[in-house]
Amino acid sequence: MERVEKERIDYLFIILIILLLGIGLSMLFSASHYHSEVKLGKGPLHFFNKQLLFIVIGTVALVFAARFPVEKFQKLIPVLVIASIFLSLLTFLPGIGREFNGGRRWIAILDYTFQPSELMKVVLVLYIATILKKKESRLDDPFNALLPPFIVILIFSGIVFFQNDLSTAVFLLFMALSMFFIAKIKLIYFAFIGLLMVPLSLLLIITDTYRLEKILTFFDPLRDPYRFGFQIRHAKYAFEQGGFFGKGIGMSTQKLGYLPEPDSDFIFAITAEEIGFIGTLFIIALFVVFAVRGYSIALNSKDKYTYYLGFGITTTIFVQALINMFVTVGLLPTTGMVLPFFSIGGSAMIINLFMCGLLINISRKSDNRGGYFYG
Q1: Could you give the count of Cα atoms lying within 13 Å of 283 in the half-sphere of its Cβ?
Q2: Which of 29, 101, 345, 362 has the CA that lies 20 to 30 A from 208?
Q3: For residues 211 and 220, what is the distance between their CA atoms, to the nearest angstrom?
Q4: What are phi and psi of 233, to 5 degrees?
Q5: Are 53 and 292 in contact (CB under 8 A)?
Q6: Domain range annotation of the chain
Q7: Beta-bridge mates of residue 106
Q8: Which tens digit of pLDDT belongs to each residue from 122-158?
Q9: Cα distance between residue 117 and residue 330, in whole Å
Q10: How many CB atoms lie within 10 A of CB 76?
Q11: Going edge to edge, which strands form the sheet with 103-109?
């Protein structure tokens, strides 16, 4: 009976992943075929085939994460932390690191690239979950329990910042602090961190012309309509043209060379243009249900380690989706944060599916699986 109980599967969560992947792959093909065929000359299925390959690899990673004893990741933390830092530093080496749009965030491997900052996200979640579990009785001691992990967090964020990816650096910090928050760390420590980080963030923005212009253009897109305001304006056009029901799958005009990054950062805008408000509302609902199910898995987990891990994974995927959507509709400055399961990108797809596998692993051994969606 105990063995059968451990093998029960969270079918609702798996259905959610399949739906997100299926819709995402369909919208990616629609958003990318013009770019890949006309602009790159590689045929309409170029990005579709690449994404399909990433999904296959990611599914293997998901199955591995779902079956591997999740507790054993705690013993691998030193290796994972060192490996992710090492890989991230490789992006700065000429001939290995690749620069794109001013950011040096990728390692080139033949015709493919790998983004180490995506690996950093899951490693940081695993690391913090391990630390919080290990030092749960000493979390009131800031120097012994909080300072060491905070140094690691700053190292991760600092490396990503020097890759010219401020948004991901801030996201790593936010994700880490959210995990400390649910561990009930005293609020005075968050106030202290805020007093340090807020002026530092402002300093990083005002001392860099590129970042400052992006922020100013966010508040006034017409300030620089053909550069920083270009994406914002055309994303809004896509939403306006999509209306309530959309123009139909494949009928977007903004993807025809008007909106930059239609298959990546701004795929949600193309989606809105083609399937309208109703369609995007359904996608948002899928992500919300994903978050509710993920947090439920965390809350019903058998111990503090899997609780922290489940919370961190769910927050990482869900908040990335929210940020991408908020940027697309003009509620946040452009960040370069992709939409999970939709945007082209092997690193993000594989890591996200690996994290989903960890959530499935946690749900298999949770105390309360709740409902008829298990077998």
Answers
A1: 27
A2: 345
A3: 14
A4: -65, -45
A5: no
A6: 2-364
A7: 98
A8: 999 999 999 999 888 777 777 777 888 899 999 999 9
A9: 25
A10: 14
A11: 97-100, 103-109, 112-114
